[in-house]
Amino acid sequence: MNNIYKLENKKGLKIILSSIGAGIVDIIAPDRNGVEESILIHPKNIDEYAYSSCYFGKPTGRTAGRIENGSFEINNQKYEIVKAKGNKHALHGGVDGWAFKEFKVEQKADKEYQYIVFKYYSKDGEGGYPGNLRASISYRLSNEKNVLRVEHHGQTDKDTLLNLTNHAYFNLSGDGKRNILDHILYIDASKFGEVNQDIIATGIKDVDEVYDFKIPHEIGKYIETSECQNNSRGYDNPFIIDQPGEHSVSAFLLDRISGRYIKIKSSYECAVFYSTNYPDPIIVNHGESLKRYDGCCLEFQHFPNGVNSSFLSHKKDVLRKNEKYQEFIEYEFCHE
């Protein structure tokens, strides 16, 4: 059963959450004139939200992104993730991933914040992953500021993989009036991951003109270039954040017409920028089928498929026995 929860503050910000997948269903935010509208693209039908393969607003456990060939090795032992039928790679945790699981829920509040905490116990072998793993995903909304903090926690009794994110499709125009090609994007990244036709990263290189979002520009400026289109029909790349953490903005997204913008901080060292290149024919909240470039995802996480990436010296998606997984993504919703 999918239960829906709401966080709402004095500033007009509303966060709608789902117990299936511990995801964000919708975010309602004011524009420069105080008009409150949805700034996410999501299915119109809540049942489709819960089980959609587009992973709207989901943390996508145990592993965000693609795991090459659906397999990995830890401590010289090979594991096979349960993949969707016909899929070459395991996507967002595999066919038995957390996006489709029901989480236990706790609600809390104090003078400064409202909290909803989702908890899940993943048994050893579930979906093909080793280790009994306890995880929680908490959403904390400030009562006085339009700041939403998402925290990911986990602990396992056996070395395993864990790499959580949030797969929300942002569109700041309000109720999906326009696509995201005119949105201005900044990403604090001097390097990014090149991907092959399977959208698996093959190496890390310095950003060039097409991928340099340290100089903020419109998402649509280079998106139709062959460099951007050849493998992924748009942007679908991991970007290496130069200064992750509490004290630096890792990404910034602006819609100039509505005046809405988002500042994102995160402890994660990587963000996958996805420009909705492969839409499913699903009716979304603005009443039409999901189309290319309707929304953009800024998926903060550890480098996807790190465990299989020979060019990475640190496999941050590997969670060791009794270590604590503690990461955050913080969104500040503003308007000019």
Structure explained in plain terms:
- It is a single chain.
- The protein has about 325 residues and is mainly β.
- The protein has a single domain, classed as Beta-galactosidase, Chain A, domain 5 (Distorted Sandwich).
- It has two helices and 26 strands.
- The protein has a nine-stranded antiparallel β-sheet with strand order 10-11-12-13-26-22-21-16-19, with no helix packed on it.
- Strand 17 and strand 18 (about 200-205) form a beta hairpin.
Q: How many alpha or pi helices?
A: 2
**Beta-strand residue percentage:** 35-45%
What percentage of residues falls in helices of 4 or more residues?
Answer: under 10%
The radius of gyration over CA amounts to 19 Å
What would CATH call the class? Mainly Beta
Q: For the largest sheet, list the strands in their spatial order.
A: 10-11-12-13-26-22-21-16-19
The major pleated sheet works out as: 9 strands, antiparallel
- Helix/strand class: mainly beta
Task: List how many beta strands DSSP finds.
Answer: 26
SSE pattern, N- to C-terminal: EEEEEHEEEEEEEEEEEEEEHEEEEEEE
Q: How do the helices and strands line up, and which of them pair or pack?
A:
Blueprint: E1 4-8, E2 14-18, E3 23-30, E4 36-38, E5 40-41, H1 46-51, E6 66-67, E7 71-74, E8 77-80, E9 90-91, E10 104-109, E11 113-122, E12 133-142, E13 147-156, E14 160-161, E15 169-170, E16 184-187, E17 189-195, E18 201-206, E19 217-218, H2 226-232, E20 236-241, E21 251-254, E22 260-266, E23 270-274, E24 297-301, E25 318-319, E26 324-335
Antiparallel strand pairs: 1-2, 2-3, 3-4, 5-15, 6-9, 7-8, 10-11, 11-12, 12-13, 13-26, 14-25, 16-19, 16-21, 17-18, 17-20, 20-23, 21-22, 22-26, 23-24
